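Exercise 7.
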Amino acid sequence: MPDHLDIAGLERAVLSLAPSEAIAWNGRATEVYGEPTELVDATLERLGWGRKQLEAIERQRLRYLSSKITSPTPAPLIGWTVPTPFPTGEFRFFALDVETANADRSSICQIGVACVRPDNSIETWTTYVDPKTDDWSCTRIHGITAPTVTGAPTFDQVFPLLSKALGGHVVYQHSGFDQSAIAAACTKSGSGQPTWEWRDSVQVARLAWPEFKGNGGHGLSSLKQHLGLQFAHHDAGEDARASAEVVLRAERHPAWQVTVDLPVRRSITIEAALESLDTIVEPGPAESSNVQTDQSSSKVATRPIPSNPIRDAMLARITARPDVRPHPSQRDAKGTKYMSAFTLGSVAFVVDKMSAGKQPIWVLDRADIRAYLDTENLEYHVYTPDMGRNSNLQKLPSFGKGQLLRIFPATADQGMGVIAKLER
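Solution. The predicted structure, written as tokens, is:
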């Protein structure tokens, strides 16, 4: 090759096209080792290379070393200012995963998409994203740093490509984190929200392998062990491929055949819209409407409180705690017809009374709470400030416009465990 070619750049370009499972080093962040010079010399001798070829190699080596001296910032795996091309062709469904620089979910620093073709083969697309932040507190999780994303596109440069490729398709995530991160990044960048249909491979795994509950759960780390999945956790491309593989394995499960067309979870946006209908205020004279009325001038149609023994047991245990107080916005611990709000020290939380079969707990979003929920494999949704919410939450300071977690404990014990974690 001519001496002017950037061999290191060509290497990065090849690695960007190769399947992640084919990259042994250093795509998997293995320990750095010394160059095997004796093996290289033996290989060159066996190839029969002469003085001309060896001199060309030496010039490339010196060129590489000089570039390291003049530019101490390591280049990213893919150095570009525009996103890498997205795979083309026909796909059954996609799976998407993101990594973030810090606890702010809009700080996306890597996006991976697994594209599942009609023959169930998986093609993975991965890109770094420059979140333009100085807070890299999540580097300890995924190893991505500010130098890693130097030259990478920003989210507003990447999202149009994703929107075009994934729009109208089914896109799996493993838990609700990725959907909330994309939504937060879209809001921050001024982009429109995605038009694809989110699904959750955690829900698919729970239906296919209920026996894993209480035995490691249905997180990717647990499924890696139980199903023998081969992937490097906390790499967006690897995790996206693992999520897609979970769906494909579930389709082949002999005890229960799941298809990707089965809706496994309603969209958070849809659920939020439904929650906002808990109380419907209709203006106009009472005689023109069949709705029930209260003593106010508005006509209010209300839903009856659904029976829920788990919720009632949890509320009884909450009110029995001496360190828990009714929220100042409420008269007493009974709260309103729709919710009971409490304070634990300086932390506020809400128990939703209007969800039949569930007992949601609302809290302000906190990274330590999400980490606990992920560890315990508890289902939760993230409500970003631009998303709808129950009108009763608007009455609580910070809950009306803040970013919230809606947590779904399956038992009273799980609910009390969440509340215990609220204590800072």
